[in-house]
Amino acid sequence: VSRHRECVPKSKCEEAVKVAIEVGYRHIDGAYVYENEEAIGRAIREKIADGTVKREEIFYTGKLWSTFHTPEMVRPVLEKSLKSLQFDYIDLYIIHTPLPLKPGDDIFPVDGNGKLIFDNVDLCATWEAMEACKDAGLVKSIGVSNFNHRQLEMILNKPALKYKPVCNQVECHPYLNQRKMLEFCKSKNIVLVAYSALGSHRDERWVDQSTPLLLADPVLNTLAKKYNRSPALVAMRYQLQRGVVVLAKSYTRKHIEDNFKVFDLQLTEEDMKAIDSLNQNLRYDPLSGFLDHPEYPYADDY
């Protein structure tokens, strides 16, 4: 269950998390920047209190936001997330983007022209601070998000590397199937985690409204009819069969329940190839505010 930063009332988020846990979801994808960790923490604690789950059965992902890449800021902001969630530890903590922003309380620091104010921080130094959080027992695993293969290599080849990133969470769906990144990650034993796996929620603030709607794709719809399932389930199943971990976001009980049916579906090799052929390297969220950033990840092939 993924919760993007958007104008959703906290109560709606809290309710969605509770429903998801009741349906059987155990992986909750959160982030400091979504500004809803208190609501998520409340929902999870409520489901622990009523005996639905134990804390160790829940897998919570938190993320280090770009304004906190300076090594000495990593642990304090993680502790802030732990306090909001009222957890003793986070299961997976990942660097949200490889794009440091000016440190401070402003999540999106901008100059007089409304341009983001970039910072220059050595990602390897940030990574060492992440490793220290794992050593301190505050997080069980550490990883990254939105990194390209060069940025991943930089960490993997870092002198005195203690823990390698367990995952790279990236936009990934049939229109952007990340084949090269997936091959690279598999070769390094890194899990690829897909966000926007169903295309995108098409938030006008970051998504070009003229981009095609993934779930309206004729191939996905033909396969959906063939299997008597939704196009969304076909798109998710495609990822699972490639060895990708899928994040799907929803606030409605029906969709949350439907998405869980992804396990009773098996696509044939032919169907998989048909979905592979839909790739058009289409990014719904190209992080356009960061285009001039020296660490902008998408200028590379993968």
TrEMBL record:
Belongs to the aldo/keto reductase family. The record marks 63 as: Lowers pKa of active site Tyr. Residues 8-279 form the NADP-dependent oxidoreductase domain. InterPro entries: AKR (IPR020471), AKR1C (IPR044482), Aldo/ket_reductase_CS (IPR018170), NAD(P)_OxRdtase_dom_sf (IPR036812), NADP_OxRdtase_dom (IPR023210). It comes from the Eukaryota. Substrate binds at residue 96. One of its GO terms (molecular function) is oxidoreductase activity. SUPFAM superfamilies: NAD(P)-linked oxidoreductase (SSF51430). The active site is at 34 (proton donor). This is NADP-dependent oxidoreductase domain-containing protein. It comes from Pelusios castaneus (West African mud turtle). It holds the Pfam family Aldo_ket_red.
